[in-house]
């Protein structure tokens, strides 16, 4: 990748951006053409994807260039409606890239499947029975999906959890049999669910209980991704705030989100702004990632910040983000949606683990930018600047008018729809004279 073509990327027109990506060697000529045409989902694919399909709901698909992750440069694709997200990711990538980039640790990828049993004549005996037949149950699960086993994956571990009756909701005792399953490059919901259904009869027979259900758990704590970064304080200076001030305030912002769930939700929402946008661009199930992330944020019983920020002995700022990231590079709509296929070529990743590394780094970047803005000038300045463009389009500005209204709105005392309407009317009137 020749990144010299990507300098001042945000200032280029859409066509110039596409050309720059091609010149930088990030995309092929054929992909440049596909981008110009819009990467849209063919009607037939849309029709077959969901029940009662009527139309296609589109989102902008953009890129945040300049991500240095584990020594490799990425131009990161993001599908997102919120104006400031890509700008924030790009700004963070620049600072963190100058400090050596992101470093990631990606765990082995194991998905979790659950079977809940109830009406057990003897809980302790049932647990013993399941554990004594562990190997046979795993084998049965693997027989339900032989192709994943052939490729080196499959059910690898089994555990039993006893959930005693809860009188406050009048629930029965549950015995939960949990399998850890390697689904390789797939997110694997179908593989896991097929395996769970493959073992239910055997579990009923072994335990004398009744199966209530068998399903994948989105609390994918056997599929964790971690990104870290280390930023010298002098790179953090902002306006009247020294680098050391910004570092200390940013650490306090994390501490606030660690102790206060009200703040933690918004803090994590900012992280998910980046994560969801890449997950969506990659064709993966962003609801699964959202659900798992927020559950992980509450893993010690209180909902807390997913990312942590601290000070190194030499005064550098240290950032770290860990969350479950059970994404796939095959399966679901990934093979069907042209934008998801394009994302694969753009990121040029070799595995689902590499895709996880990109996604978790974007999450940390997003958090860095949000906190840095919040503890210095506040986010409204940047947000409203970008919001001005949406307002201009909302009131009907077209072509050159969009830039004209945007520029004038940024200087206006009240940035709102009424002002945008007045500015557009004035621009149109002066154009007539
Ligand atoms: C807005 O979409 C996200 C932020 O609220 C995140 C945060 O507060 O950390 C800016």
Describe this structure in words.
This is 3-hydroxy-3-methylglutaryl coenzyme A reductase. With 433 residues, the chain is an alpha+beta fold. It folds into 3 domains: 64-74 and 82-107 and 223-377, Alpha-Beta Complex (3-hydroxy-3-methylglutaryl-coenzyme A Reductase, Chain A, domain 2), CATH 3.90.770; 110-217, 2-Layer Sandwich (Alpha-Beta Plaits), CATH 3.30.70.420; 381-432, Helicase, Ruva Protein, domain 3. The chain contains 16 helices and 10 strands. It has helices at 14-23, 29-37, 43-49, 85-98, 123-132, 134-144, 146-150, 189-207, 243-259, 261-281, 286-297, 338-347, 352-374, 380-394, 400-411, 417-432; strands at 61-69, 72-79, 103-106, 111-118, 154-163, 174-182, 210-217, 224-231, 307-311, 317-324. The longest helix has 23 residues, at 352-374. The two termini are 49 Å apart. The relative contact order is 0.13. (R)-mevalonate is lined by residues 82, 266-267, 269-270, 273, 370, 374, 379. (R)-mevalonate (MEV) binds next to helix 10 and helix 13.
């Amino acid at each position: 990748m020749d990144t010299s073509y990507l300098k001042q990327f945000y200032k280029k027109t859409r066509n110039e951006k596409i050309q720059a990506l091609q010149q930088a060697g990030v995309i092929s000529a054929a992909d440049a053409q596909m981008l110009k045409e819009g990467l849209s989902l063919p009607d037939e694919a849309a029709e077959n994807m969901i029940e009662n399909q009527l139309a296609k709901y589109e989102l902008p698909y953009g890129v945040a260039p300049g991500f240095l992750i584990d020594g490799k440069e990425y131009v990161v694709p993001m599908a997102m409606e919120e104006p400031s997200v890509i700008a924030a990711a790009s700004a963070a990538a620049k600072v963190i890239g100058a400090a050596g980039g992101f470093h990631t640790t990606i765990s082995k990828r194991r998905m979790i499947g659950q079977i809940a049993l109830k009406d057990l004549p003897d809980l302790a005996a049932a647990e013993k029975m399941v554990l004594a037949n562990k190997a046979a149950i795993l084998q049965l699960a693997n027989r339900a999906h032989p192709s994943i086993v052939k490729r080196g994956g499959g059910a690898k571990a089994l555990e039993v959890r006893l959930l005693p009756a809860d009188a406050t909701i009048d629930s029965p005792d549950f015995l939960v049999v949990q399998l850890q399953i390697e689904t390789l490059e797939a997110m694997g919901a179908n593989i896991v669910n097929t395996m769970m259904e493959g073992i239910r009869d055997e579990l009923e027979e072994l335990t004398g209980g009744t199966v209530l259900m068998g399903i994948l758990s989105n609390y994918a704590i056997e599929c964790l991704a971690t990104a870290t970064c280390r930023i010298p304080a002098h790179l953090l200076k902002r306006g009247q705030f020294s680098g050391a001030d910004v570092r200390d305030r940013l650490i306090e912002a994390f501490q606030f989100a660690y102790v206060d769930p009200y703040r933690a939700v918004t803090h994590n929402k900012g992280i998910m702004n980046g994560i969801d946008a890449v997950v969506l661009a990659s064709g993966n199930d962003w609801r699964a990632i959202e659900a798992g992330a927020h559950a992980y944020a509450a893993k010690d019983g209180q909902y807390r910040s997913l990312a942590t920020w601290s000070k190194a002995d030499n005064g550098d700022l240290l950032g770290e983000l860990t969350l479950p990231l059970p994404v796939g590079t095959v399966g679901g709509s990934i093979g069907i949606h042209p934008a998801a296929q394009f994302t694969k070529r753009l990121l040029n990743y070799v595995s689902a683990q590499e895709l996880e590394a990109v996604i978790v780094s974007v999450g940390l970047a997003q958090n860095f930018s949000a906190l840095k803005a919040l503890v210095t000038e506040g986010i409204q300045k940047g947000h409203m600047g970008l919001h001005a463009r949406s307002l201009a389009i909302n009131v009907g500005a077209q072509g050159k008018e969009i830039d004209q209204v945007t520029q004038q709105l940024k200087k206006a005392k009240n940035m709102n729809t009424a002002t945008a309407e007045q500015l557009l009317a004035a621009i149109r009137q002066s154009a007539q004279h």
